[in-house]
Amino acid sequence: MIVKYGCVTLRAIDKKDFELLFYLINSPEIERDVVGWNFPVSSMAQKKWMKNFKNTLGSIKFMIELDNKKTIGMIMLEHIDWKNRTAEIGCKTGPFLEYRIPGDTTDALKGMIKYAFDELGLNCINGVILEENYLSRNLSKKVGFVEEGILRKRVYKNGKYRNLVSLSLLKEEFQE
Amino acid sequence: MGKGKEEIVKVLQVVKGKDFVEDRNLISDGFLDSFELLKFVKELENQFNINIPLEHISQEEFNSIDSVYDIIQKIVDDNNK
Questions:
Q1: Nearest Cα to A124, choosing from A165, A174, A75, A56?
Q2: What is the ipTM of this complex?
């Protein structure tokens, strides 16, 4: 099912998302601020990935579509652990001011978290953010995540080892 | 504060709709969120009649009025070469 929350709809990845996903995975400006990394991805590889992609019990990816029908990014739950009822959340959005709506990423995060707690029955959503990524840290805290600690020099990026901040949000703490 | 920096603060206040306290950082202290940062960039481009390339729109470079001023100055200087 799709997820509606505030000004966003979280929906499945579709063929029409090729250009956005191709941009998100190859953009140096996006990769600068996220924990993960990729070798350059060709259009052939991206098309093949999309052709074979499906959500699974261990990993769920949704596109973030706004009320104005523009798609601004992707949000995901990874490493879903059904015994301990945990999952790791991640999100990537593009710098598209002309499409964006104030509070859209807040709604996307809250929508995914509500889906995780109320539909999947999870109990704890966790994540890691680069220590210098204050935009994401501030957004996460606004949604209710608690910073648990620092993972020291865990990621090598732009010539330096960088710290990660570990965060989590429990079901009982989540306020819609 | 120089004229250029004052203009930047004015743009910031229009984007945010409230006064900016000078000893705060724009990003790390939470004055701007991601939407407001993009809007700030767009308004700066209009105000200074420049194009700010994506590679300059980093949280580090937009964390203070001084660093934003440096970016704008560099772009203006490059355009005048």
A1: A174
A2: 0.90
